[in-house]
């Protein structure tokens, strides 16, 4: 191989690695897009810097990052930390209109009892953790489908022309290590919570398909970056502020959620 060929190969390889490492950028022109973000804390931006207000909406969440990257005609984040499906229907959906072009949403985790389940697993035994996850599983199977369907119908009724992207939740925990830090969860607890998250995401995926919306799955992007891993994209139990606990950090929103949304739109 000639010297020139070697140099060219190195340049091409370096360029490919750089492109792979950077968050994917949207390929379309969004200068006329009216974008509204709906849902819970995973859309409001909890867990990363820049949160403010009662709903903890932040400048580092994936909606704000997407808006900065794409410069839409308008952008509004109506998502709120702690929101359930009825909150979306009653307090967020009414702000949509026929002019809304793009909607993104994460919802369902709080309905399913995400916070109580994680708290129980943090403080209680493996058996108690398994029991609370089983209870959440039954709720997701029996009750949540109807709540999601009603929410998606309300979104479509208020924004009939919009592209609607429903993003999943990440699998929270790394389970490759027996240790999870001081006071960290056992492998059994982590596996139980991960199993519950998988079931929730699959249920959301099914109802999104039924609604004719787009499902954007972040689970693959977050693989290898769970809590207790060597490079976590999700906060573990956090004292200040406690609301950051078990939410994506800046890397999670930047390298997990944002590229997944961009891929869904391209």
General description of the model:
A 5-stranded parallel beta sheet has the order 4-1-5-6-7, with helices on both faces. Strands 2-3 form a two-stranded antiparallel ribbon. It has one domain (28-113, 144-186, 204-265): SGNH hydrolase (Rossmann fold, 3-Layer(aba) Sandwich), CATH 3.40.50.1110. Helix 3 crosses helix 10 and helix 4 runs parallel beside helix 7. With 266 residues, it is α/β, with parallel strands linked by helices. 48% of the residues lie in helices and 10% in strands.
Sequence of strands across the biggest β-sheet: 4-1-5-6-7
In quaternary terms, these chains amount to single chain
> What do we call the CATH topology?
Rossmann fold
The assigned CATH architecture is: 3-Layer(aba) Sandwich
Number of strands: 7
Proportion of residues in helical segments? 40-55%
CATH C-level: Alpha Beta
Outline the biggest β-sheet: 5 strands, parallel
Mean of residue pLDDT values: 90
How far apart are the termini? 38 Å
Rounded to an integer in angstroms, the radius of gyration calculated over CA atoms is 19 Å
What form results from the Cα inertia axes? Answer: globular
Please trace the helix and strand order, writing H or E for each element: HEHEEHEHEHHHEHEHH
Number of domains: 1
Strand content: 5-15%
Structural class: alpha/beta
